[in-house]
Design a protein that fits this description.
Pathway: Amino-acid biosynthesis; L-threonine biosynthesis; L-threonine from L-aspartate: step 4/5. By secondary structure, the chain is α+β, with helices and mostly antiparallel strands. It has two domains: 11-170 and 301-309, Ribosomal Protein S5, domain 2 (2-Layer Sandwich), CATH 3.30.230.10; 176-297, Alpha-Beta Plaits. The chain contains ten helices and 13 strands. It has helices spanning 67-79, 102-116, 121-124, 127-138, 141-149, 188-192, 201-219, 225-228, 243-254, 281-287, and strands at 11-14, 16-20, 29-36, 38-44, 47-54, 85-92, 152-157, 164-169, 176-182, 259-261, 268-272, 293-297, 306-309. The strands form three sheets. The chain has a five-stranded mixed sheet with strand order 5-6-4-1-13, with helices on one face. A four-stranded antiparallel sheet has the order 2-3-7-8. A four-stranded antiparallel sheet has the order 10-11-9-12, covered by helices on one side. A hairpin with a 6-residue loop joins strand 10 (259-261) and strand 11 (268-272). Helix 1 (67-79) runs parallel beside helix 2 and helix 4 (127-138) packs antiparallel against helix 5. The structure holds adenosine-5'-triphosphate and L-homoserine. Adenosine-5'-triphosphate binds at residues 20, 37, 56, 60, 66-68, 90, 92, 96-106, 143, 187-188, 263-264.
């Protein structure tokens, strides 16, 4: 069989930051945010060059071990073969290891860029296949789904194949995310290690009800976000690894502001009543007194990882 036909590129992809769980939607619910990394990938004559700017540039590998390169390589394998060489440039702005889906942005960015470098790539590796591959590599479909598809997503594993699937929804106009990003990093694997094997049935039942309510709140009724973001499955168990984040969640909720831990933390995601900087005031007041968190008002990104130049 002949290999794929490559376009030279470069192609440029903008994968968004994402927030997962959003309270009770543990490992399922997610949303894309208007904060993006930028990935430029081109076919080269030979070898691999990796140029990194911004977040993580000092620490991330510049070889085949780079997460985005690994994801692009896996995508090329699915697309029929590897190019003779690769040139990668990343401009990273999404804070890493903070619960904002930076690893998903790298994985999805690599897959989407690789398929854009192959003639017919969008059909050979469609969004359903790209999602399954991204979840295989990243491990958590609740971040990769909104990163790929944009908007608000529900992810699950197919009962027969185990492959990641997702349903995408449009966010309601009144959903205004505000993120409070701490200086300290937190790693997903460590944060998952704090979760118990079992939870009481009554708490699982309460959580299921709020997760259902959360879908309605995010897509049609933002006024329900406070009750809809209450969780019983993960946040409190994770408190020892990010006490300041949980204290901030508690303080905001006590003021009637919907707030949760973003993904595996330690970023706190709150929802303001108003868009933009006006909306952050009430939240910033609660954060004041601690210089630990940087507060930024965002929107839900209706676009997922888009090819902005090919
Ligand atoms: N842009 C990137 N390029 C390459 N590797 C990255 C990039 N962003 C993150 N990573 C890798 O992923 C690790 C962070 O993954 P982790 O899943 O712990 O955090 P996160 O993806 O930022 O948060 P979460 O999954 O909870 O939303 C980093 O330490 C780094 O090894
Ligand atoms: N659902 C995951 C998100 C991180 O990818 C967690 O909370 O561990």
């Amino acid at each position: 069989m002949s290999g794929p036909v490559f376009r030279g590129g470069p192609v440029t992809v903008r994968p968004p930051a994402t927030t997962a769980n959003i309270g009770p939607g543990y490992d399922a619910l997610g949303a894309a945010l208007t904060w993006y990394d930028e990935v430029e990938l081109a076919v080269a004559d030979t070898g691999l060059t990796v140029e990194l700017d911004g977040e993580g540039a000092a620490d991330l590998p510049r070889d085949e071990g780079h997460l985005l390169v690994r994801a692009a390589r896996a995508a090329f394998d699915r697309l029929g073969g590897q190019p003779p060489g690769l040139r990668l440039r990343c401009v990273n702005t999404i804070p890493q290891a903070r619960g904002l889906g930076s690893s998903s942005a790298a994985v999805v960015g690599g897959i989407v860029a690789a398929r854009a470098l192959v003639e017919g790539g969008d059909e050979l590796l469609d969004d359903e296949a790209a999602l399954a591959l991204a979840a295989e590599i990243e491990g958590h479909p609740d971040n990769v789904a909104p990163c790929l598809l944009g908007g608000v997503t529900i992810a699950w594993a197919d009962d027969v194949t185990g492959r990641a699937r997702a349903a995408r929804m449009e966010p309601a106009a009144g959903v205004h995310p505000v993120i409070c990003v701490p200086a300290l990093r937190g790693y997903t694997a460590a944060s998952r290690g704090l979760l118990p094997a079992d939870v009481p049935h009554a708490e699982a039942a309460a959580n299921a009800g709020r997760a259902a309510l959360l879908v309605r709140a995010l897509t049609a009724a933002p006024e329900l976000l406070l009750p809809a973001t209450r969780d019983w499955l993960h946040q409190n168990y994770r408190r020892p690894s990010m006490p300041q984040s949980l204290d901030l969640v508690d303080a905001l909720r006590a003021e009637g502001i919907p707030a949760v831990v973003s993904g595996a933390g330690p970023t706190v995601l709150a929802f303001s009543a108003m868009p933009g900087t006006e909306g952050v005031e009430a939240i910033a007041t609660k954060v004041a007194g601690s210089d630990t968190f940087a507060v930024t008002a965002l929107d839900v990104s209706t676009a997922g990882a888009a090819v902005i130049q090919r």
